[in-house]
Specification:
The chain is an alpha/beta fold. It is 38% helix and 16% strand. It is built from eleven helices and eleven strands. A seven-stranded mixed sheet has the order 5-4-3-8-9-11-10, with helices on both faces. Strands 1-2 form a two-stranded antiparallel ribbon. α6 links the parallel β3 and β4. α3 runs parallel beside α11. The radius of gyration is 32 Å and the shape is globular. The termini are far apart.
């Protein structure tokens, strides 16, 4: 009996010891698991990139990438995009290359009232033509409508405005006498919502504004607290090639005259050229890119009506290196016959794939026509 009692005691002690160890293990294991989960979450958060909706986000170049992973976009955007990877940029090139400007490429004036004689406005009106031609062919990740929620006569769509601030600072750092950023606004009609919106968006004093209109809205402009803004009471006309030295006090000036009057002959870039001049765009657009005119990085224009000249207008825009990143009908004061377009200038090398693609289509079309005749 004594031996049995001794064995019982030993077994009891062993059971207690085992139970104690088991409880310790059961207590420690969950703690270890929780700690590993917390560590994994923290590591994952550090590994994740900043939100792509954040304009300040610039992805880190991975170790397997070359240091110039963003150089193609920077070169072909004339310095505007410095954080777009090569593969993304080439996709944008492909989108532009494959874009078709017209619903009916063989007859691009279909739906235009000049050409189309069908009686219903759904088929032969300016809105019908604009609906089937010249859609945007480029995308700006952080484009923004500047100037509030008013009608198209005021606010305008701007491609990535935060980049303008960055470029202006870089220019000022290189040359303290550089204006940093310059904005021309032709045709205000006393509405300064866009210009004031830009001042607020990119920072006071970052840009120098030059606002043009036939009416005298100087006092109205002064009601805003612009840091650097100038109002010029004249309209834009086609450039007279015989004028070398424009005289002050005229009601109209060509763009080259305007550049001279403002002392901008040596200016490298007009960051934004905004123009709403009630059809003068059709008479002046070739002057916008003439010799002696600073490069226009962005161009926001309201097009009025749909004259036959619209086709050479868009052809000239592309040949001058512009892509369309936004299109907005002005429907408050008309039936959609007026369109607000936003353009961005790129290096002409960007369009090389588009030229190759168009040439291939033309060759295939010519071959098809020959085969049909056989």
């Amino acid at each position: 009996m004594l031996a049995l009692s001794s064995k019982s005691k030993k077994a009891s002690k062993a059971g207690t010891f085992f139970t104690s160890k088991l409880n310790t293990i059961l207590f420690i294991v969950p703690l270890v698991l929780v700690a590993r989960i917390v560590l994994a979450i923290g590591t994952t958060e550090k590994a994740l990139p900043a939100s792509k909706t954040d304009p300040s986000f610039k992805p880190v170049v991975e170790s397997y990438e070359s240091a110039d992973a963003y150089s193609l976009a920077k070169k072909q955007s004339l310095g505007f995009f410095d954080d777009v990877r090569k593969d993304e940029w080439e996709l944008l090139q492909k989108l532009v290359a494959e874009h078709e400007d017209h619903k009916y490429p063989e007859q691009p004036l279909t739906h235009n009232p000049i050409f189309d004689k069908r009686h219903k406005k759904y088929f032969n009106s300016n809105p019908a033509w604009w609906q089937t031609n010249y859609e945007p062919n480029f995308s700006c990740r952080f484009e923004k409508r500047i100037g509030g929620n008013g009608n198209g006569d005021g606010p305008k769509w701007i491609c990535d405005p935060h980049r303008i601030t960055k470029l202006a600072k870089e220019r000022k750092a290189k040359d303290p006498n550089h204006p940093g950023c310059v904005i021309y606004s032709v045709g205000s009609n006393g509405d300064f919502s866009f210009e004031w919106g830009m001042e607020q968006e990119i920072g006071p004093g970052v840009c120098e504004f030059h606002i043009f209109d036939m009416g005298n809205y100087t006092s109205k402009m002064l009601q805003y607290n612009f840091t650097r803004a100038h109002f010029h009471q004249w309209g834009l006309a086609g450039q007279n090639p015989n004028v070398e030295n424009p005289e002050p006090g005229q009601r109209f000036y060509g763009l080259k005259d305007t550049i001279k009057l403002l002392g901008h002959e040596n200016l490298d870039t007009i960051d934004i050229f905004k123009i709403d001049c009630e059809k003068c765009e059709w008479r002046t657009f070739q002057d916008w890119f003439a010799p002696g005119i600073p490069s226009m990085q962005q161009l926001q224009v309201e097009l009025h009506g749909a004259p036959q000249r619209a086709i050479p207008f868009f052809t000239h825009m592309e040949e001058s290196g512009y892509v369309r990143f936004h299109k907005e009908p002005n429907i408050q004061f008309n039936d959609g016959s007026c369109l607000e377009y936003a353009f961005l200038k790129l290096d002409k090398e960007f369009f090389s794939l588009r030229k190759e693609t168009k040439q291939k289509k033309e060759d295939e079309s010519a071959t098809d026509k020959k085969e049909r005749l056989l």
